[in-house]
Write a structure and sequence with these properties.
The protein has about 525 residues and is α+β, with helices and mostly antiparallel strands. The chain is built from 15 helices and 23 strands.
Length: about 525
Amino acid sequence: MADMLKLFVNGEEVEVESGKNLIDAIGAVGIEIPHLCYHPALGADGNCRMCLVGIEDGRPPLVPACKTPAMEGMRVQLDTEKIKKIQRDVMELELINHPVDCPICDQAGECKLQDYYMEHDLQESRMRVPQVKKSKNLDFGCGVVHDQERCVLCGRCVRFTRQITGTGELGIVNRTDTARVNIFPGRPLNNRYALNVVDLCPVGAMTSRDFRFSQRVWFLKKDEGICHGCAKGCNIHIDHNREKYKDDVIYRYRARHNDLVNGYFICDEGRMSYKSENENRLTEATVKGDLVAVSEAVHTIRQELSEAKKPLILVSPNSSLEQQWAVKRLATLSGVECFGYSDAYIKEGDGDDYLIRDDKSANRKGLELIEIETSKQRFEEALAECDLLVNFDNDLFRFDANEEMKAVVAGKKVIAISTHANYLTDNGTVVLPVASYSEYGGCVVNEDGILQAFSPVVRKNEELIDVLEVTRMLGGDVSDSGQAWSGIRSAVPELAEVQPDLIPAEGLQLSVSEEAHVSA
């Protein structure tokens, strides 16, 4: 546990963590010091001066909070008239040339400049000279669009490309009123994390071309989730809106801070993976190409399973722990072999040494913990011998993998229980649509052995059933996640003491791994 110290804020004693600057230390106890340029992942720059605070009996008496460590007995002044005047003056300086285009700005509702103006300024402009005009709608590459008029020159985006990605595409050029954030000539943003500058921007200067003008942020419901784009399991905000009489639609993913997993950032590919939750979804059950009710499709699956001489069950590495356990129990009770073979989810050479992984599945570790067979040789042997393949949302031919298996699968009767359309659903005798990860809750274990829980956030007008519910309807003995965890705890020693409702927000480390910690 970190050492604690006591200091005074506006005369009141508070206990804060030692070793932190004043912004982070005091912010942790719920007292915000206004700031624009500082960010915990990028360090202190000290250029906006919005965070100047008074130190009673200090030398000097005024200090930038981002560069000042918290010290025992320090008396910090935030509410004196002198400090308030400094904040008003800084705000006035920031707003001199800032366009009043909040009604059309994507950042409206999430803008720190708006927030601080309402808190510290609320004055009519004293400027009687024309504003300095700057460029708008600049394409910086990688889907980032820049509006120079809105920029407050905090430098967060510049520091991100230098300190985090190491690519250095952005810089602040010129001085005074001609200072601009810009790309170097012929060198647009070219890294796989570029859209993080949109999250970092405290105003509406950096925007996402994908999200621009698509939705007002105050209409969005912002929930927490886990990215299922790769084995890292980055923490995300899922921003979605359900308009009247329409389906709930996801409009964007944003990075959610978790020091144990992804720090403050996510990759662009994971950020844009929200589209797959909206697109190419299966919504209707079919039997031999004909539309049927879900109950009829389930009845047909049960019949096919009972009539098959040697059925085979395949489960997805993206499924939650609860779903994987329920599928395994169904297979055990039915006397059917169960596999989690999923080499098709591995994209060799695609990962990096930061957040992107070759393995594009969210819960391969779950298959290992629950002891579901994943070897290719064993699966190929079982596939060759089976007369019915029941697939629980495993995209067997993802990234054009396993092409040699297509001829074998073509000769089998296939039941596809899936979230999205793919080769198996196109060739399935029975196709049953199920809920995707934004629509159900559960637990996954990332590649570093960190157990994380997530909840359902998206609600469709016609809700799809969960894989766990499908197994119950097919004769399995797992009726809900609570019952699944009773079995998991008894069968998996590493999870014997886990209570899913008590899993911390940052996750639970199941095994010690230095690589699990990201300093971002």
